[in-house]
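Posting this for the archive.
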Amino acid sequence: MMSLNGKYSIGILLTFVLLAFSMLYSIPLINYFFHFKTITADLFFYNRLSIWFVLILIVVYNLSFENRSFFVWADKKYSLGFYFAAVLALYLMCMVGGTVLNGIIMLITHEKISDKLVQLSSIFKNNYFLIIFTCLTAGVTEELMMRAYIQPRIEKIYNSPSLGIIVSSLLFGILHSTYGTIGQVVVPFFIGIVFSLFYKKYSNIKILIICHFMFDFISLMLMNTIDLKQLSVF
C-alpha cells in the first residue's frame, strides 16, 4: 500500500501538471470547439473556468486517495483588526517589492511589456464581470492549490519548512511564465515567498485569498483606466 507521503507526492505533481496544462493548452483546446480567432472575453472566461476544474479534480483526488483533510494545517482564527492589518501589510510588501524587482529587471534586460498582457488589457476594458471573476479565480484557486495544498505537503514529505516555501513559490512563479517575460516569473515568485512565509507563520488561507484578490483587482482596475505603458514598471 502506498504511503501517505507517496500519495501527497502524486497530488503535488498532479496539481502542477494540471495547472500547467490549463494555462498552456486550455485556450487551444477551447478554440478547437469554439473557433475563436483571437483572445476574446469569452475565451478568457473559459480559460479561467478550466482552473476551477483543476481545483475540483485535486479536491476529488484528496478525498478519494489521500483520505485526509485538504488542509494539512488547520486555519487559525484572528480578529477583524488582524485581518485588515495583515491584508494591508501583505499588499504593501508585494506591491513595493514587486515594483522594485520589476524595475530592476527592466533596467537590466530592457524587457518590453508582455504581449499577452497587452492583448488581455483590451478584453478587460470596462468588463467588470471578467475582472472580478479573474481576480476571484486567481485568489481562491491559486492560494488553495499553491499554499494550502502544495506547501504543507512538501514540508511534510521532506520535513523542511524552507523547502515547502521555496518549491511552492517556484512553482507559482513558473506557472506565470505563460506571460512570456522574466518579470512575470520573478515577481510572482517573490509574492509566493511572501505569501508562503505568512501562511507558515499564521496558517490562515482566507487572508491570503483576500489579499491576492485585492492585489489583482487593483492591478486590473488600474489597467482598465490608465495606459498600460504607464503601468509597465508595476
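The chain has one domain: 4-231. Residues 105 and 111 are 7 Å apart (CA to CA).
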